[in-house]
# Entry
Amino acid sequence: MKKAYIFPGQGSQFPGMAKDLYEANAAAKELLEKANDILGFRITDIMFEGTAEDLKATRVTQPAVFLHSVVLTKCIDGFAPDMVAGHSLGEFSALAAAGAISFEDALRLVYLRATQMQACCEKVPGSMAAIINLSEEKIEEICSSCSGIVIPANYNSDGQIVISGEKEAIDEACAKAKEAGAKRALPLQVSGAFHSPLMEPARIELGKAIEQTPVSVPVCPVYQNVTAQPTTDPEIIKANLLAQLTSPVKWTQTVKNMLADGALSFTELGPGAVLQGLVKRIAGPVEGLEINGMSTIQL
# Structure
């Protein structure tokens, strides 16, 4: 039975995240203290004791979710995935877990990505919205017909797509989606237009760092967001990571491709269980497991 390990992105964080790992597992504590040193501030203090509002800042959220996910992989005996994938930020967790990028280098990239995205959001206002119960083709057609920048950003599951772009264009697309029969067209409370062309300044800065980062052949295929296809080629991994910031997350296609390649179970590693819900909508009743803390590791 092939096992797929999947890693969540921004939005799955919660107050107290990874505290139980830090307190119960020596390897987890060592990695989290190393992260404090690399980042130059005690992110563990925010993760363990901070409020939900403290954790919402992109520069905190992204490294916190990455750390929670990757540290969990070090707490599992015999972690040996047949394939991995991550949603947006989670792709960096997947690459670190599969040995394509070192823990230290991946954390530095994640923090740079987070700070650049936060700066980009402050300079270039944008928004996102969830469109429910409308086909991919119709949503793509609606986005193409709008004035201004708006594109499908997250193909989360059949019938759930998030669009991203300029606020006025988002409003126009939502109105057109409702006219076309969407069950809901709901603006999201986010800080910017993630996975859209508005992230181009952040993509340029991150690209410089990705180019200088060593990437190895991972221990298993990594299904990347931009293509939804598996790869073990370091140069392809780099190119796809660079494109990710301004391109859609093809999560629906990723899960379907993993199923087609023999995945019979999906284990989510990280805070929350958002991806388990999406997998069930895409794949139906497949075996799923959430590992998000010491209690779930011991099950």
About this structure: Strands lie at 2-7, 83-86, 127-132, 150-157, 160-165, 184-187, 222-223, 230-231, 263-269, 287-291. The first strand starts at residue 2 and ends at 7. The domain at 125-187 is CATH 3.30.70.250 (Alpha-Beta Plaits).
